[in-house]
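Contributing new complexes? Match this layout with heme C.
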Amino acid sequence: MPSNFSKPRAFAVPFKFATAGMFAVGVLALAVAAQPAFAQDMSAGARIFLEKGQCNQCHGKNGDGVGDDPREHGANFGESGLDKETMMMIISCGVPGTNMPYFDKFSYTDDRCYGMTGAQEGANKPQPPLTEFLAKRDIEVVADYIQQTFVGKGPVKPGAAAPADATPPEPQH
Ligand code: HEC
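Output block (do not edit by hand):
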């Protein structure tokens, strides 16, 4: 075997890794560049709370239960004694007979929620989301967000400032 034959092979592996690494960095840079300026400052949970699920329309972006949509209201999360699992169940199933929507599209296809089918709930069946159904993972992420941001900190005073990561900074000029 000619001695120079092994040289390119020795270089081949690190080169492959370098390319994959550069590709990943490139994709990341593209993804960051594609976000609107303020979205970069929002956590994944805040993004679901404010954008994907629009929970703030009823709960307020500060979690005080005064809806950002003035016609709506929700629970004041600072007063909530619910744990994460119970919150995930409520977000999935909604609260029958109230405005709290169900965010899991499979809820009420059978009796997984409160032992009741959609037909059994009748007029009390919660409404579907204002925007879109959420994947299980998103339901967990937004429940974590509510737990970490609001729960156990005492009732949120109506009109209190929103958490830093839910506050879009002033547009830069
Ligand atoms: C259309 C209005 C509306 C929207 C949108 C909404 N909620 Fe609610 N939510 C309510 C209302 C009203 C209640 C209180 C129901 C009751 O009286 O028990 C509630 C209750 C809750 C509770 C139970 C809190 C407690 O301590 O009892 C959780 C958790 C919750 N919502 C999470 C969410 C999340 C997360 C989203 C977005 C993905 C969301 N909600 C979107 C209206 C809404």
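Reviewers usually confirm one structural detail per submission. For this one: The chain has a mean pLDDT of 84.
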